[in-house]
């Protein structure tokens, strides 16, 4: 985990990794048709690398000096596989398991939880399970029990109905991954998507679904569920769609874009007195600048999290904030106190709908006097996944707004930090994030991708002035 004092870093925009895990008595060859279609799909090829994980599995082991490994051993091998070589550099990994392969993945997840390494699962973006026997396989179960009475197979035992070891693993995954809340140190939220074959007699629908809420039924039996005819086949289309735009977790917001636009303009002449009215109050605000700040968030069509989302903006230095909101405000009275009593804060709370955009626009008076020309936006920590984040600053109306006089300093801090700590980090940070685009009139834009939270910051006081210098002096004392 990055410490609060760590320098800001450019988030990785690297390609995503998909790992395919085969089932009982099978091999990586079961994925041949899917891999062929994925390789020929330009959407997948442009963003995703696909690998297979193999492990020893068979109905019987006839060689005296060999044995069939148990699920925890296979899961341990999967952990080493994911951490080996270039695979260790991927920060966005999707695990896809067929049949017993799904139990291998569950056991891998439970192993991380049990060893106190839940945060290492942060790189696992999604888990996709195809015909996984969460409640066992009932097909010829009596015959299987009879046969394996004389030739025990630990993998076959895991496929039996209500196997206690599998039930314990699934209980942990359900409680500490499927149902966990962000920030709970006992687990990690990962989206889990299940598929069942409509003609599957090996793993029935109830077993393939298990206790997981997000599932789809597709044509095919236990084997042909992996062999779509072409890219238009629902068996392929649903999987490819999940790989290109992963499904969300019920407790984590899936956000397509989060945009902040800051436009600062000078007021004519010297500092002016403006009458600020808010709630039952009014007061005079003396300022030489006014700003329009727009915060806009668009939720993914895959968003499954319906916890209330909050957009907030506050100003200091006795400034004033006048808000306009795109939707009815669900904020509670205590959330609105600072705005109604002091006029320094706007809070917009709403229950997000998948695919919808929500906007908070504020007019800010006396927000950016000399020494206070900076703004930052908090994205939370592990509460959301942001596919794209943009921060733009428009100083074109300001006398010193051109890049000939001042260049804004954009920074991204992966760790959440309070206002005073953030000011200190601005000086100590070694690697600010450069603007993605700029023009000589005074318009700058910075874009980042695939964020899990943190703080996005920009400061534009001329060098040698402002809050950064004050914080630097304080840090040296």
Name the features:
elongated; eight-stranded mixed beta sheet; six-stranded parallel beta sheet; Rossmann fold; 12 helices; 477 residues; 31% strand; single chain; 18 strands; disordered C terminus; disordered N terminus; alpha/beta
Q: Can you give a write-up of this model?
A:
There is one protein chain. The chain is an alpha/beta fold and 477 residues long. The protein has helices spanning 32-40, 42-45, 71-82, 100-114, 141-149, 154-158, 164-178, 205-209, 234-244, 337-342, 419-428, 467-476, and strands at residues 16-21, 48-53, 93-98, 124-130, 191-197, 215-218, 253-266, 272-278, 281-287, 289-299, 309-314, 320-325, 345-350, 357-365, 374-394, 409-413, 437-439, 443-459. The strands form four sheets. Strands 7, 10, 12, 14, 15, 16, 17 and 18 form an eight-stranded mixed β-sheet that branches. It has a six-stranded parallel β-sheet with strand order 2-1-3-4-5-6, sandwiched between helices. A two-stranded antiparallel ribbon has the order 8-9. Helix 4 (100-114) links the parallel strand 3 (93-98) and strand 4 (124-130). Helix 3 packs across helix 4 (100-114) and helix 11 crosses helix 12. The protein is elongated. It starts with 15 loop residues before the first strand and ends with a helix.
